[in-house]
UniProtKB/TrEMBL annotation:
Keywords, comma-separated and alphabetical: Transferase
Protein's UniProt name: Putative glycosyltransferase
Membrane-spanning residues: none
Signal peptide: none
InterPro entries recorded: Glyco_trans_2-like, Glycosyltransf_2, Nucleotide-diphossugar_trans
Superkingdom to which the source organism belongs: Bacteria
Segments forming domain Glycosyltransferase 2-like: 18-131
Single annotated GO MF: transferase activity
Organism: Gordonia amarae NBRC 15530
């Protein structure tokens, strides 16, 4: 595994931050995210790189007409050679000029102090994650389908390392390049955890800035939620297959029993008065279980 020097003592603040956004057919929501980037309180230099991953919805023209393109130093880069967010982000980083990279997604909305808070902690760490809140962009019903950790609690696998989702992650360029960027083998999900795991195992630290908030958009259809949850489950199994030798433990058997019992008892085919659970919550937990089973079979491990 490649080495990288990113957390060897405190370093100066970034000279230039490159915000990298991977986009595939996202013009309907990208404008809100760009507007949120215009409204950042961050006083340093920044640029915004949109990595176009095979969009067919007029993304190039949309970016040409975006009114605040100059203020953002907005650029589109062609990331169409291979489908996938990991490839698009790698391409965006390669085409960017910043010494610090900040990732966000086109369908979310960064809070005004996002970049200021992310970069404030950057001198102390190789990478920095931030908090996610779901109240701004999602209905109360959709929020009941999938409950995230509170914004001030970092993500982590119990008994192993912390990780940060790529929708809210800052990383020094030398740390990113030192571990080879995103591993494109994680096509089914888990590429964000894998990246931050490799940074930490290479000697870098992962900081957490809870005030570096983004408004996170949840899946608002059951089929979309099912696909996402299955993908997450497959990614978790792949992570276990790759990092078990580094100390990543299996899920506790009681957690497996609990989710199987939930899938049976909360089955939406049963009357709602009996299940007492929203259908979306069942879809998410059951889809995640199915994904872990699929991933375990595919990667020849047991992580259910």
């Amino acid at each position: 595994m490649a080495s990288q020097p990113a957390s060897a003592g405190r370093r100066p603040p970034p000279e230039l931050v490159s915000v990298v956004i991977a986009v595939h057919n996202g013009t309907d929501l990208l404008g809100d995210q760009l507007d949120a980037l215009v409204a950042q309180t961050y006083a340093g230099d920044m640029e915004v790189i949109v990595a176009d991953n095979r969009s067919t919805d007029g993304l190039s023209e949309f970016l040409r007409r975006y009114p605040d393109a100059d203020a953002l130093r907005l650029r589109r880069v062609d990331a169409s050679e291979r489908a996938g967010a990991g490839y698009a982000r790698n391409t965006g980083v390669a085409e960017s000029a910043g010494d610090f990279i900040a990732f966000c997604d086109h369908d979310d909305r960064v809070h005004p102090g996002w970049l200021e808070c992310l970069t404030a902690l950057a001198p102390e760490h190789a990478a920095v994650g931030g908090g996610l809140e779901t109240a701004t962009l999602n209905s109360a019903d959709v929020r009941r389908w999938r409950q995230l950790l509170p914004p001030d609690v970092p993500n982590g696998f119990p008994g192993f390392l912390r990780w940060s989702p790529t929708c809210n992650l800052g990383i020094w360029r030398d740390a990113f390049d030192g571990v080879g960027g995103f591993d494109l083998a994680y096509a089914e999900g888990g590429e964000d955890a894998d990246l931050t795991f490799r940074v930490q195992l290479a000697g870098g630290s992962l900081g957490f800035a809870p005030d570096a908030l983004i408004a996170y958009r949840l899946r608002d259809t059951l089929i979309g939620l099912w696909k996402q949850s299955v993908m997450f489950g497959e990614g978790d199994a792949r992570l276990f297959a790759g990092y078990h030798r580094h100390g990543m433990p299996r899920r506790h058997w009681l957690a497996t029993v609990d989710v199987i019992a939930y899938a049976l008892i909360r089955n939406p085919l049963l009357p709602t008065w009996l299940t007492r659970a929203p259908r979306g919550a069942w879809v998410f937990h059951t889809g995640n279980l199915v994904g872990r089973v699929k991933g375990s079979l595919r990667h020849r491990c047991f992580y259910v």
